[in-house]
Design goal:
The protein is an alpha/beta fold and 526 residues long. It is 48% helix and 16% strand. Helix 2 packs across helix 3 (69-87), helix 12 packs across helix 13 (346-376) and helix 17 (446-467) packs antiparallel against helix 18 (472-481). Bound molecules: ligand ME8. The site of ligand ME8 has 20 residues, from strand 1, helix 1, helix 7 and strand 14.
């Protein structure tokens, strides 16, 4: 059970070369669910997301569009990246842009400290560079091109040719840290997750680490190297530091000490940056490494990573315009095991919407409230003596809450939802078995009818609290229809740890009717 400690969670900061697709939204939702859960568990939670705005990729996109890179970034951030947060209902506490002064200044501070401590030197480098990844590639990372790139080596992720670059740069002595990194993976097995990702990272580091080129002098869209303004900082070195510059590094040491280290959620495409380069940078600076780095899987289209550069990206609003943000959040958290790849399909989304959200959860809520309205004039009845079936519901709720909390602790978001859904299924079964509509016909069974509906209402109270991190809009509507806002206060302030305490919504509370939480969808986009 969470214990009121600090919980700092981050997403990657996204490139602003293009608008977000559902892969980016997937990461945001996962981090948001974890942040909301931890807030409700009583932890001092801080959730950071943001944008990565320097480097050649953004520079080239801006140039191709006839604007400066800053103009391009401003436009994309205001027209696409900020609005994404609304589209999928993200509750971030901060949004960092790498062009923020608070970031740029403290990247320079960090770099200067590493330079003064002897971790930076000048050197020559030649290698294959993928601008899509903003990374020098090893030959083992490249594959033979197809189509227009036949006969050329292309990046395995972007399927586009790499460029042979030769530069005189500043280097970070990353090779010094291989042993310490291996010791870290060994001593803290939870540091890199899931297990498959951890094994891959260990294999990679065991082969030995090369020093990292951390500056560029052939273009100037980046943060200037403080002791040599003819160089800008390598975009990944700059970007990784967002996690600490946003948390107060260099500007508010008290906030920084309170927040750092973080739980970091990234896609598996960028796991190595976060599990190898990033902790090495922190070790060099004498700072703590992240609490854990979790590499989630990819959303696939036709078996390949969904991507804007391959024109397979789906905009999140294409889904939310029809199904709503709650369904988006629920679907991706439920249908894909966090840590594994998954394929998005309109059919699967539509089927789960209908079966699980509309028929499973939504109908349950509407039916219970309708019966309280019909049989008790919209007032929550008093409970009589509990029978075994009622106690079983209480036990289901307590067990589901504990199981879901344990699942969230191990970042198994889909298991948390599955645990909570047992309440939906058992409550539906309970109502079918108890047949309140039959009890209502017999005045002698009035007390029993009250107990059954009071139990069902308490079940809905618990479901509102436990599902709030996943489907915040629907649960807020339900909370208000239950009259719980007035009786118990704001939904977001309800504690996960208290959810199993029975009888919180007092008898006599007035409930309201409920419009369908997940209305029927007539036509589904193809
Ligand atoms: O890599 N499936 O930014 P980026 C699942 N700026 N998640 C996906 C995805 C897919 N098909 N496509 C993208 C960068 N993502 C750097 C990060 S952090 C210091 C710098 C998500 O815009 C996933 O989280 O290319 C992935 O790691 C991220 O978007 C990459 O976003």
């Amino acid at each position: 059970m969470a214990d009121g400690t600090s919980f700092y969670i981050t997403t990657p900061i996204f490139y602003v070369n293009d608008a977000p697709h559902i892969g980016h939204a997937y990461t945001e939702v996962a981090a948001d669910v974890l942040a909301r859960w931890h807030r409700q568990a009583g932890d001092r939670t801080w959730f950071l997301t943001g944008t990565d705005e320097h480097g050649q990729k953004i520079l080239r996109t801006a140039t191709a569009n006839g604007v400066t890179p800053k103009e391009w970034a401003d436009k994309l951030v205001s027209e696409s990246w900020y609005p994404l947060l609304d589209t999928i209902d993200i509750s971030n506490d901060d949004f960092i842009r790498t062009t923020d002064v608070r970031h740029e200044q403290n990247v320079q501070l960090f770099l200067q400290r590493l330079y003064d401590a002897g971790f930076i030197y000048t050197g020559e480098f030649e290698g294959y560079y993928c601008v899509g990844c903003e990374e020098y590639k090893q030959e083992s990372d490249l594959v033979q091109g197809t189509g227009e790139y036949v006969g050329q080596l292309v990046c395995a992720i972007h399927s586009k040719p790499v460029e042979l670059l030769q530069e005189s740069n500043y280097f970070f002595r990353m090779s010094d840290f291989a042993e310490r990194l291996l010791a870290l993976y060994e001593e803290r097995p939870e540091f890199v997750q899931p297990e498959s990702a951890r094994n891959e990272v260990i294999q990679f580091v065991r082969q030995g680490l090369k020093d990292l080129s951390i500056s560029r002098s052939t273009f100037d869209w980046g943060i200037k190297v403080p002791w040599d303004e003819s160089h800008v900082v390598y975009v990944w070195f700059d970007a990784l530091l967002n996690y600490i510059t946003a948390a107060g590094y260099g500007s508010d040491e008290e906030a920084f000490a309170e927040r750092w280290p973080a739980t970091q959620i990234v896609g598996k495409d960028i796991l190595r940056f976060h599990a190898v380069i990033w902790p090495a940078m922190l070790m060099a600076a004498g700072l703590e490494v992240p609490k854990r780095v979790f590499g989630h899987g990819w959303l696939l289209v036709g078996g390949e990573k969904m991507s804007k550069s391959k024109l397979t990206g789906i905009a999140p609003s294409e889904i939310t315009d029809t199904f709503g943000s709650d369904a988006f959040r629920y679907y991706f958290m439920r249908a894909i095991a966090f840590g594994q790849d998954g394929s998005f399909s309109w059919e699967d989304l539509s089927a789960r919407y209908q079966a699980e959200l509309a028929n499973g959860f939504g109908n349950l809520a509407s039916r219970v409230l309708a019966m309280v309205t019909r049989y008790f004039d919209g007032v929550v009845p008093a409970s009589g003596p509990a029978e075994p079936a009622d106690v079983a519901i209480q036990e289901t709720v307590a067990r589901a809450a504990a199981d879901a909390d344990a699942a969230i602790e191990r970042l198994a978001i889909q298991d948390a939802l599955a645990a909570i859904w047992r309440i939906v299924d058992e409550l539906n079964g309970y109502i079918t078995e108890q047949e309140p509509w039959v009890l209502a016909k017999d005045e002698a069974k009035r007390e029993r009818l009250g107990t059954v509906l009071a139990t069902a209402v308490e079940g809905l109270r618990a479901l509102s609290v436990l599902l709030h991190p996943f489907v915040p809009k629907a649960t807020t509507k339900l909370w208000s229809a239950l009259g719980a806002e007035a009786a118990l206060g704001e939904l977001g302030a309800q504690r996960i740890g208290d959810v199993g305490t029975w009888g919180q919504l007092p008898a006599g509370t007035s409930v309201a009717g409920l419009e369908p939480l997940f209305p029927r969808i007539e036509a589904v986009a193809e």
